[in-house]
Amino acid sequence: MPQEVQMLAFCFISVALSLLVTLVCLNEKVFERYYSSGSKSHRGMDEDFLSLVKSIVPPLTSKKHKGQDGRIGIIGGCQDYTGAPYFAAISALKVGADLSHVFCTKDAATVIKSFSPELIVHPVLDSPNAVEEIDKWLPRLHALVVGPGLGREDSLLKTAKEVIEKSKTRDIPIIIDADGLWLVTQQPSVIHGYHKGILTPNFMEFTRLYEALHHEPMDISDRQRSVTQLSVAMGNITMVLKGEQDLITDGGKVITCSVEGSERRCGGQGDVLSGSLGVFAHWAHAASAAGVGRSANPSMVAAFGACSLTRQCNNQAFQRHGRSTTTTDMIQEIGSAFKKLFES
Ligand SMILES: *[C@@H]1O[C@H](CO)[C@@H](O)[C@H](O)[C@H]1NC(C)=O
């Protein structure tokens, strides 16, 4: 008999033990699920915006005529700066624009043309009737990027300002970067409250603009708050504050783009962003006009798309080239980065 008791006891203990193990496992599963949904709320927002971006990318079909996927204009390029407008214009093409026009000064035109036969280069920015010359093209453009390589010469800034005014009356999306932001810092009214306007400052340009509008030093410890304040002060225009993470807002919620980039920042990366943003802005506003995209602000969707793409290009280029990564390497990654993010 004692042997049977022993056997019984042994069985009891085994059953109890396996029950315990099952319970622990179950618990772990529950814990795991809880934990991952907890950490997901942030990524969830990214995924929302990622799927919104996917929904605005026009499919490639044979039915379209040339120009439907976007004709983008770049206002910039002068004697001192020829790389920036080239980077912005070629990025727009690589993202999927049909045509990229560069409106630059006479002495920059030959240089920019020589970088690429794919761009249309107009040597008009310093001509006496520059605004008139550019205005002729506006009806054919879907988005405008103002500032890459514009420089700070008064006459060029004045031309840029008048071109912005004309584009606003035509309801064209306008991206303002680099020296274009210098102009906005001097005269915020030029783009204030324009719902298809997007500013893409780096931290220094942002600080300058903030202090010009708020007449007080910025609290650098809370960037989310500062970027929201500035957007509201600019009439809820879409702001993209570039940095370790890109912050995007229209004065309401702030979305963060934290697609992994790299430690390497090259001069010209901002031009990849502004050029691609021109295309995304056109697509997003066209999609929104056609009823796609629920209630999201098209400018925010476009900004998220361009920021994600630029960061992904940086990441891929860095994997290939490490510390020797340049903007040209990033531009070569646009095709595969785009596919990876938005077409998979
Ligand atoms: C700007 O956005 C905020 C937050 O969405 C809103 O409360 C405010 O009314 C908006 N201002 C304008 C001028 O639309």
UniProtKB/TrEMBL annotation:
Is Transcription regulation there in the keyword field?
no
Identify the Gene3D superfamilies for this entry. 3.40.1190.20
**Keyword Nucleotide-binding included in the entry's annotation:** yes
Query: What EC number(s) does its UniProt record assign?
Result: 4.2.1.93
Which major enzyme category is it?
lyase
GO BP annotations of the record are: metabolite repair; nicotinamide nucleotide metabolic process
Keyword annotations of the record: ATP-binding, Lyase, NAD, NADP, Nucleotide-binding, Phosphoprotein
What reaction gets catalysed by this protein?
A: (6S)-NADHX + ATP = ADP + phosphate + NADH + H(+); (6S)-NADPHX + ATP = ADP + phosphate + NADPH + H(+)
> Which cofactors does it use?
Mg(2+)
* InterPro entries reported in the protein's UniProt record: Carbohydrate_kinase_pred_CS, CARKD, Ribokinase-like
- MF GO annotations: ATP binding; ATP-dependent NAD(P)H-hydrate dehydratase activity
Q: Where do the annotations place ATP binding? A: 242-246, 261-270
UniProt: (6S)-NADPHX binding residues: 149, 202-208, 271
Q: Which CDD domains match?
A: YXKO-related
Give all residue intervals belonging to the YjeF C-terminal domain: 49-341
Give the function comment from the record. Catalyzes the dehydration of the S-form of NAD(P)HX at the expense of ATP, which is converted to ADP. Together with NAD(P)HX epimerase, which catalyzes the epimerization of the S- and R-forms, the enzyme allows the repair of both epimers of NAD(P)HX, a damaged form of NAD(P)H that is a result of enzymatic or heat-dependent hydration.
Against NCBIfam families, the record matches this protein to: yjeF_cterm
Family note: Belongs to the NnrD/CARKD family.
Stated name of the protein: ATP-dependent (S)-NAD(P)H-hydrate dehydratase
